[in-house]
Automatic annotation (TrEMBL), chains A, B:
<dbReference type="InterPro" id="IPR029039">
    <property type="entry name" value="Flavoprotein-like_sf"/>
</dbReference>
<dbReference type="Pfam" id="PF02525">
    <property type="entry name" value="Flavodoxin_2"/>
</dbReference>
<protein>
    <submittedName>
        <fullName>NAD(P)H oxidoreductase YRKL putative NADPH-quinone reductase Flavodoxin 2</fullName>
        <ecNumber>1.6.5.2</ecNumber>
    </submittedName>
</protein>
<feature type="domain" description="Flavodoxin-like fold">
    <location>
        <begin position="3"/>
        <end position="210"/>
    </location>
</feature>
<dbReference type="InterPro" id="IPR003680">
    <property type="entry name" value="Flavodoxin_fold"/>
</dbReference>
<dbReference type="InterPro" id="IPR051545">
    <property type="entry name" value="NAD(P)H_dehydrogenase_qn"/>
</dbReference>
<dbReference type="GO" id="GO:0003955">
    <property type="term" value="F:NAD(P)H dehydrogenase (quinone) activity"/>
</dbReference>
<keyword id="KW-0560">Oxidoreductase</keyword>
<dbReference type="GO" id="GO:0005829">
    <property type="term" value="C:cytosol"/>
</dbReference>
<comment type="similarity">
    <text>Belongs to the NAD(P)H dehydrogenase (quinone) family.</text>
</comment>
Length: 236, 236
């Protein structure tokens, strides 16, 4: 039995994307896991990182957000909505992200959840990144819906690669950076335009993806042993 | 004389990033251009795309955000804050983005400005993307501050490439996608940790960058003539 956090961010509660989030809850509960859902639109989550996030400040005159994140943890002065989400992440063995791709990235409400919740200090440090970061041992998996078709992505395709190209900032630069084992993501292509039968097929494939999560490949992240103590590449 | 829009997004009004935005305003005004500033934190810009963005709806029962964007333009039912920003972009010959890199991307407040302002229909259409999209003939340039060092970015470096790798979703997938000529971006590395002298040097380099904007290289975008009418690669 595991603790699962589903982070969901779609503005339409009846969306297909929401159905993917609901399916994830069902699949994990069916196998006896404990599931918590952060439904960012339903929670009206505030995505704007600002000085309001700290009840007291290390430097009240000049905001360096990441330094205030560190100070706030030492002095328990972090805003309540952030604390709730941080605790959910720390309690989870696996985080499931379900969202529509907006501009080859997350919707802003989810981007701001990352900006405010993935605290400097707790999640990563200057040299504690990738395989040395704090989310080591936890898994992250994502279901992403998009309008584009699968043939638009790949090394020689229109937009280039998706998970390792356009969305590298998320899978490597965010989830991998803080140490998660990043499971090969699930993409629901062409969702607004495909048939209901096609969507039913995507939903079933997503359930299969989740049922075989333990056997799914994990994305490669940079191997820190290839870099020196300030992350310059070592001589070959 | 040109019309310039500076889009700025930093939570600290006294930040070095804000100094870069101010320098941009000064440089363009000094050469006689008209400059408008969208200071997203000062405006308390709402970054959350939602049904509230439309005063009337094509489909009140089910939100497909991009379809409602199109409907709202036909029926002038777009929320006032969005309309203001859209008009600013349409009036500009050059847009200057100034922001700190958060998670190899923009801060959420700027991500949401893109989500809400880069309207389907007005900025791009299903097949009107990249060189066929509507911002053709306008320039986009960015100054991005970050904590990382320059040696951490590149083909064989720790994080891989920056503008074409980690931030490809922004430079290609957003600015290039809607048709801007995307000027090679300016990065201010290691900003929170470097000396005041170093920062003064970065500021001067940014002013030089802006003064020579017309001679700066433009980033390559996908060549649509290499793809068929559904964007499959043509045979070589």
């Amino acid at each position: 039995m595991s603790n699962i956090l589903v982070v969901h961010a779609h503005p339409e509660p009846k969306s297909f994307c929401t159905a993917l989030a609901t399916a994830a809850v069902e699949e994990f509960e069916a196998r006896g896991d404990t599931v918590v859902v952060s439904d960012l639109y339903a929670q009206k989550f505030n995505p704007v990182a600002s000085s309001d996030d700290f009840r007291s400040r290390a430097n009240p005159d000049y905001l360096v957000y990441s330094l205030e994140q560190r100070n706030a943890q030492e002095h328990t002065s972090l805003g309540g909505d952030i604390k709730t989400e941080v605790d959910r992440v720390l309690a989870a063995d696996t985080i499931v992200f379900v969202f529509p791709m907006f501009w080859f990235s997350t919707p802003a409400i989810l981007k701001g959840w990352i900006d405010r919740v993935f605290l400097s200090g707790t999640f990563y440090g200057g040299k504690r990144i990738y395989g040395r970061a704090s989310m080591r041992g936890k898994k992250a998996v994502a279901a992403v819906t998009l309008g584009g078709r699968e043939h638009m992505f790949g090394v020689d395709a229109l937009h280039g690669e998706l998970a390792r190209g356009m969305m590298r900032h998320f899978f490597q630069g965010t989830l991998g950076y803080v140490g998660f084992d990043v499971i090969e993501p699930f993409f629901g292509y062409h969702v607004p335009y495909c048939s209901n039968d096609d969507r039913a097929g995507i939903l079933e494939n997503w359930r299969d993806h989740l049922r075989s999560l333990d056997r799914k490949p994990v994305m490669n992240m940079p191997d820190l042993s290839r870099f020196d103590d300030v992350f310059r590449p070592l001589e070959a």
